[in-house]
Amino acid sequence: MKELILFLHAATGCDTTSAIFDIGKLKPFRRLQQDEALRLRVGVFNSPNATPDDIATAGEMFIMSLYPGKTSDDLGKRRFQMYVKINSRLPANKKFDLAQLPPTSSSSREHSLRVYLQVQEWLGNPLPPTNWGFEKDEEGHLRPVTNRSKPAPDRLLEMVSCNCTQGCESKKCSCRRHKMVCSNICGYCAGHGCSNTSREEDEDNVDHPDKDLEPIPCTETDVELSLA
């Protein structure tokens, strides 16, 4: 394990890399102790000639080993399975914390590149940071690249949500105004405990095109014609 101490320290959080939420350092240490194949795989972080793809693949395998699931899964599938499992057990009045999920493949890649950069720095092999998980801002300062992918597919990003604090009872609620029920992406109610959680329209808040028209008297002849 001594050859992997630098990798473990950087991969689980140090001055230049992020920690993995609610994982700590002891669990990853024990995981590597128990898995020889994984130790061999992450050994690439000590190589001065590793490619970004090699590092990203090994880093993703390491991160997946810290979460329950099948070894054949990728991070996207693992995230979905954990979301379904955790959300199914969540009380209705509690909001889901996305930090409980593994990082996305894109975030894992950038994290792994920074881990490799730091390990090589400790080994006396400095590399250009902008090739390994960092970018320069307008002032020339280095900033970590957290993700190069969109946070969600376009069809999800275009979904309507609200931030109502008064129970989503009126048309001030953007979800109700667009004839949509509230969901867990809504900022305050999260689709729970408000008046807009079923698909039944609130007749008091629905604009009928003919609600302002005066009723027209119907004669006996009119009824006979309509039935005919």
TrEMBL record:
Q: Which organism is it from?
A: Phaedon cochleariae
Protein name (Swiss-Prot/TrEMBL): Tesmin/TSO1-like CXC domain-containing protein
Instruction: Tell me the segments the record calls region Disordered.
Output: 199-228
Q: Which PANTHER family match?
A: CXC DOMAIN-CONTAINING PROTEIN-RELATED (PTHR46704), TELOMERE LENGTH REGULATION PROTEIN TEL2 HOMOLOG (PTHR46704:SF1)
